[in-house]
Amino acid sequence: MWLWLWWSTSTHVQAADDSLKPGDTLNFSSPQLYSQSGKYFLHFYSIADEASIDTYMAIYSAYDNSIVWKGNREQSVDQTDAVLSLNFSGVLKIESHFLEKPIILYSPPQPINNTMATLLDTGNFVLQQLHPNGTKTLLWQSFDYPTDTLLPTMKLGVNHKTGHHWLLVSQLTQMHATPGVFSLEWEPTGQEMIIRRRGKVCWRSGKFRNNRFENIPEDAQRVLKYSIVSNEDEDSFSFISKNENHTRWWFLSDTGQLSHNQGYVVRADLCYGYNNDGGCQRWQDIPKCRNPGDVFTKKMLYPDYEYVTYDKNENISHSDCEASCWSNCYCNGFKEFTDGTGCIFYHWNSSDNNTIDGTVSGVDFYILENTRKITPHHRGRSTANFLVLFSID
Ligand SMILES: *[C@@H]1O[C@H](CO)[C@@H](O)[C@H](O)[C@H]1NC(C)=O
Ligand SMILES: *[C@@H]1O[C@H](CO)[C@@H](O)[C@H](O)[C@H]1NC(C)=O
Ligand SMILES: *[C@@H]1O[C@H](CO)[C@@H](O)[C@H](O)[C@H]1NC(C)=O
Ligand SMILES: *[C@@H]1O[C@H](CO)[C@@H](O)[C@H](O)[C@H]1NC(C)=O
Ligand SMILES: *[C@@H]1O[C@H](CO)[C@@H](O)[C@H](O)[C@H]1NC(C)=O
Ligand SMILES: *[C@@H]1O[C@H](CO)[C@@H](O)[C@H](O)[C@H]1NC(C)=O
Ligand SMILES: *[C@@H]1O[C@H](CO)[C@@H](O)[C@H](O)[C@H]1NC(C)=O
Ligand SMILES: *[C@@H]1O[C@H](CO)[C@@H](O)[C@H](O)[C@H]1NC(C)=O
Questions:
Q1: pLDDT at residue 14 tops 60
Q2: Ligand 7 mean position to 349 CA, how many Å?
Q3: Does ligand 1 have an atom closer than 6 angstroms to the CB of 30?
Q4: Burial level of 245, CB count in 10 A (0-12/13-18/19+)?
Q5: Fewest C-beta in 10 Å: which of 99, 181, 238, 380?
Q6: What's the pLDDT tens digit per position in 216-262?
Q7: Ligand 5 within 6 A of CB of 189
Q8: For atom 6 of ligand 3, which residue has the closest CA?
Q9: Measuring CA to CA, how many Å separate 304 from each of 43, 307, 311, 374?
Q10: What pLDDT does residue 274 have?
Q11: Nearest by Cα to 82 from 58, 63, 59
C-alpha cells in the first residue's frame, strides 16, 4: 500500500509541474512551477536599481504576470545561488549565500519524508503530509502569511486556536519588499476592515451590512461575495469574485492605495487625519496653513524652490514624507530619493506663492493642490472615486 502510493505520488509529481516532492529544488533558472490549470505560477525573480539586485521567491498571477505573494520579503537572496527546496526531513526552505541561515518556511517537529509542496489553483502554496491511508494533513500554507495582496479565499483576521493573525502589510517602497507603512486588517469586534498607517487607524470600512461595506465604492464591491466567519476557531474575512474576469485580488500599495485589478477599493493615501470623509479617521486638526481639500499631487515639473531639506532615513518612504510635509507649514512639496526611501522637502520662503516653472521639463515630485480646483485626470473610475471622496464638504 505504502509503496504503491509513494510510486504513484512520485509519478504524479513528475508528470505535473505544480509540486515539489522531497529532494526537489527550484532555482532562478528552473522552469516555473505552475498550478494545475495554469492560473498561478511560482519562481524566483529579480528587481534591480543602481545600487543592488534583489531576488525574491514569488507567486504570480498568470492573468497579467503580477506578483501576488513573496516568500522572502524581509530578506532578499542572491539570484545566482538562491534555491527553494523541500528536503527529506520535510523542511521547506530558501537558501542563498547571502543569508546567514536558511529562510525556513516550514520545519516539522519530527523529520518526515512523506510530504509534498503544491501550488494550488487558488494561488495558495501548500505543504502537505501524505498518509499511507490516502489522506493528507496540511502542514503549512502561503495563505497564512499574506504579503501585500489579498487573493480570493485568502483570509484576514485571527485564528483563535493558534493566535495567528492574518493581515496585509504594504511594501516599504515599490522597489523594497520589506514590510512598510500600511496594513489592512479585519476587526472582528466591529465587523469591519481597517487600514493602519504606522499602527494608527487611518481608515475604516464601516460595519458590514447587506453584504456591503459603507466606505467602499459600489463599483469595487458589486461582483464580490464576502465570507465573514466568527466562531471559536477563527474570526475572519475573505471574498470571492462572482465574475471570474473582475476582481482577482486586492493589492495594498506602498503609498496606502488599496486597489483591485480595475480600480481603487480605498485610497487611504487621501486620509490626512482631519476629516471623516469616505471612512477616513480623524487624528489631528488641519494645520493652519492647509485648506480642506488640499492633497499632494504628483507633478512632473521643475520645482522652483528656494531651499531644500533632506531626511535620509532609509526606513521611511512616501507616506512618511507626505505626513511630515503636510504638518510643516514651511514645506511646499516633496519627493523621495530615487530608491523610494528618505525624503527631499522643497520650501518656498513665501508660503503662499508656490512658483513652478512649467517651461522646463522636470522631475516627479509632489505638491499641494486643492482637489476642488483640480481638473480630473482621465484615469477612469479610479479618479472618479477619488473625487467623490473629497467633494463632500
Ligand atoms: C537550477 O535548476 C536546474 C533544474 O531546474 C538545474 O539544471 C541547474 O543546474 C540549477 N542551477 C543551479 C545554479 O543550481
Ligand atoms: C533538512 O533541512 C534542515 C534545515 O536546514 C536540516 O537541519 C536537515 O538536516 C535537512 N534534512 C536532510 C535530510 O537533509
Ligand atoms: C522515509 O521514512 C521512512 C520511515 O521513517 C523510511 O523507512 C524511508 O526509508 C524513508 N524514505 C526516504 C526516501 O528517505
Ligand atoms: C490516516 O492516517 C493518518 C496518519 O496515520 C491518521 O491521522 C488519520 O486519522 C487516518 N485517516 C483515516 C481516514 O484513516
Ligand atoms: C470572461 O472573459 C472571457 C474572455 O474575454 C469570456 O469568454 C467570458 O465569457 C468572461 N466570463 C464572464 C463571466 O464574464
Ligand atoms: C532602519 O531599520 C533597521 C532595522 O530595523 C535599523 O537597524 C536601522 O538602524 C534603521 N535605520 C534608521 C536610519 O533608522
Ligand atoms: C529662503 O530661506 C532660506 C532659509 O531661511 C534662506 O537660506 C534663503 O536664502 C532664502 N531664499 C530667498 C530667495 O530668500
Ligand atoms: C508669485 O510669483 C510669480 C513669479 O515670481 C509672480 O509673478 C507673482 O506676482 C507672485 N504672486 C504673488 C501672489 O505673490
A1: no
A2: 6
A3: yes
A4: exposed
A5: 380
A6: 999 999 999 999 999 999 999 999 998 877 778 999 999 999 999 88
A7: no
A8: 113
A9: 45, 9, 20, 20
A10: 92
A11: 58
Which phi-psi region, left, alpha or beta, contains residue 352 (left: φ > 0; alpha: ψ -120 to 50)? alpha
pLDDT digit string (tens) for 288-301? Answer: 989 988 999 888 76
> Using an 8 Å Cβ cutoff, are 233 and 164 in contact?
no
Q: What is the pLDDT of residue 372?
A: 57
Residue whose Cα lies nearest atom 5 of ligand 6: it is 315
DSSP string, 109-139: SS----EEEEE-TTS-EEEEEE-TTS-EEEE
Q: How many A from CA of 8 to the centre of ligand 2? A: 25
Sign for the CA dihedral angle at 93, 95, 101, 103 comes to negative
Nearest CA to ligand 6 atom 2: 315
The band of 379, judged by pLDDT with boundaries at 50, 70 and 90, is: very low
To 10 degrees, the CA torsion angle through 147, 151, 154, 155?
70
Q: What is the pLDDT of residues 193-204, one digit of tens each?
A: 999 999 999 999
**Cα–Cα distance measured from residue 210 to residue 112, given in angstroms and rounded to the nearest whole number:** 47
List the one residue out of 390, 350, 353 whose CA is nearest residue 371.
Answer: 390
Residue with cell 482631519: 274
Average pLDDT along the chain: 86
Best substitution site from 304, 305, 307 to test ligand 7's pocket, by max atoms within 8 Å of Cβ?
307
Domain ranges of the chain: 146-284, 285-370
CATH architecture of 146-284: Orthogonal Prism (2.90)
Cβ atoms of 170 and 180 within 8 Å: the answer is: yes
How many angstroms separate the CA atoms of 390 and 308, rounded?
A: 30
The three state secondary structure string of 173-206 is: CCCCCCEEEEEEEEECCCCEEEEEECCEEEEECC
- Reported as a single tens digit per residue, the pLDDT across 115-138 is 999 999 999 999 999 999 999 999
